[in-house]
């Protein structure tokens, strides 16, 4: 079997994690080039690889010999440029979420794909590959709890990175719930309302954390998302679907409950790299298999665009305090 040569763009926390996964848990692929404007960082990551070239310019990594597919893990605002370089070379892409922070950038990515006449971009909405989310999706698809009415979601991070902004609570964090809700329900999000309580004392100065985000769907379902990125105690992603004939809940993380010395309890994951380890592996395996055939199989640029349009409405709603409608372009036939 031939191995797929991958360029990894951005070698920070997520990029380095993907590089490790490709080496250890994903067969049929190898990293042949890495890029990061931080020269020391990119050399350090390249040093863990056998024969990969290190670049400070993403375009040079994408054009490096042996590159057949591109994995983008740079910050959101840098995604569009790297995707367009990859599409110029007709290379399959796995781009970390968000596809782009704004819908205008996502539309340009879709235009480039439409010029090529095929989909080459997959967005890293890895929750679609999480076994618990998959089970919930199967239940809803099988009408297991009747017609859905609510999704109650909690998304908590132990702490936020230094570069995190109030807008990013929506465009970088809640974007996962936006995609999960669209996928679980098979409906678009049509309006967003954001409530911002008094910030937690643990939130960095100026960060509006936590927030409550209300999403309304085209099918009349209401999705509430508590986003709290400095909760202090760990990483939690929970979702309860309530339907006309029952409810189903995932993300309680009760893999093992210990009872000892007059107490009961278990551990809370501290990080997404632990909670979603399986999902990242399965996402990568699926992308590598499809990319080897020159295709993509998972969430596509339309999904990235729709999520960016909801983020834009959510950011406006948070600033105005007013329910804000989502403006969505017509879905091009390529994404039908
Ligand atoms: N799917 C998930 O659960 C998940 C988890 C964490 C991060 N992410 C996403 O992964 C991406 C990276 O996040 P991170 O946490 O690794 O951030 P990070 O800050 O740890 O790493 C980003 C890296 O990109 C580099 N970089 C900056 N500009 C660049 C450019 N123009 N081209 C290439 N590299 C550039 C930085 O020097 C840094 O090394 C973001 O899109 C983020 O939203 C996804
Ligand atoms: O970039 C990260 C990542 O997407 C995590 O999955 C999410 O929980 C964080 O809130 C976000 O900042």
At a glance:
Homotetramer. Its EC number is 1.1.1.18. This protein is an alpha/beta fold and 336 residues long.
Keywords:
Dihydrodipicolinate Reductase, domain 2, binds 1,2,3,4,5,6-hexahydroxy-cyclohexane, 6-stranded parallel β-sheet, alpha/beta
Word description of this protein:
With 336 residues, the protein is an alpha/beta fold. It has 2 domains: 153 residues, Rossmann fold, CATH 3.40.50; 140 residues, Dihydrodipicolinate Reductase, domain 2 (2-Layer Sandwich), CATH 3.30.360. 35% of the residues lie in helices and 23% in strands. The strands form 3 sheets. The protein has a 7-stranded mixed β-sheet, covered by helices on one side. A hairpin with a 2-residue loop joins strand 11 and strand 12. Helix 4 packs parallel to helix 5. The longest helix is centred in the middle third of the chain and has 20 residues. It is globular and about 55 Å long. The model has no long low-confidence stretch (mean pLDDT 97). 1,2,3,4,5,6-hexahydroxy-cyclohexane binds next to helix 7.
The distinct ligands, each listed once, are:
nicotinamide-adenine-dinucleotide, 1,2,3,4,5,6-hexahydroxy-cyclohexane
- Class per helix and strand makeup: alpha/beta
- Domain count, please report it: 2
Count of distinct strands: 15
Radius of gyration: 20 Å
CATH class of the largest domain: Alpha Beta
How are the strands ordered across the major sheet? 12-11-7-10-9-8-15
What's the CATH H-level homologous superfamily of the largest domain? NAD(P)-binding Rossmann-like Domain
Number of helices: 10
Largest sheet: 7 strands, mixed
CATH architecture label name of the largest domain: 3-Layer(aba) Sandwich
Beta fraction: 15-25%
Q: Which percent range fits the helix content?
A: 25-40%
Distance between the termini: 33 Å
Tertiary shape: globular
EC number: 1.1.1.18
Domain Gfo/Idh/MocA-like oxidoreductase N-terminal: 5-125
InterPro entries: Gfo-Idh-MocA_inositol_DH, Gfo/Idh/MocA-like_OxRdtase_C, Gfo/Idh/MocA-like_OxRdtase_N, MI/DCI_dehydrogenase, NAD(P)-bd_dom_sf
Enzyme class: oxidoreductase
């Amino acid at each position: 079997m031939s191995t797929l040569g991958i360029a990894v763009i951005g070698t920070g926390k997520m990029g380095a994690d993907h590089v490790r996964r490709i080496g250890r848990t994903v067969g049929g692929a190898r990293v042949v080039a890495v890029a990061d404007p931080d020269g020391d960082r990119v050399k350090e990551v390249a040093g863990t690889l056998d024969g990969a070239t290190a670049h400070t310019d993403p375009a040079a990594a994408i054009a490096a010999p042996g590159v057949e597919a591109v994995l983008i893990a740079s910050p959101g605002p840098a995604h569009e440029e790297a995707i367009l370089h990859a599409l110029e070379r007709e290379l399959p892409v796995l781009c970390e979420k968000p596809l782009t922070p704004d819908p205008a950038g996502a539309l340009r990515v879709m235009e480039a794909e439409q010029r090529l006449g095929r989909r080459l971009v997959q967005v890293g909405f890895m929750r679609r590959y999480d076994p618990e989310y998959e089970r919930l999706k199967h239940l809803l698809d099988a009408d297991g709890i009747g017609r859905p009415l609510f999704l109650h979601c909690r998304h908590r991070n132990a702490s936020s990175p230094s570069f995190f902004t109030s807008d990013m609570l929506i465009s970088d964090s809640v974007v996962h719930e936006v995609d999960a809700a669209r996928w679980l329900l098979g409906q678009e999000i049509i309006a967003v309302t954001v409530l911002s309580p008094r910030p937690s004392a643990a939130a960095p100065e100026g960060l509006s954390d936590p927030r409550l985000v209300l999403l309304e769907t085209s099918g009349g379902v209401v999705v509430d998302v508590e986003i709290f990125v400095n909760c202090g105690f760990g990483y939690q992603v929970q979702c309860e679907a309530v339907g006309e004939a029952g409810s189903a809940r995932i993300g309680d993380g009760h893999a093992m409950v210990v009872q000892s010395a007059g107490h009961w309890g278990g551990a809370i994951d501290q990080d997404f790299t632990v909670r979603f380890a399986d999902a990242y592996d399965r996402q990568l395996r699926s992308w590598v298999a499809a990319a080897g055939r020159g295709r993509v199989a998972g969430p596509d640029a339309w999904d990235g665009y729709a999520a960016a349009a909801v983020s834009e409405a959510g950011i406006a709603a948070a600033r105005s305090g007013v329910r804000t409608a989502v403006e969505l372009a017509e879905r091009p036939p390529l994404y039908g």
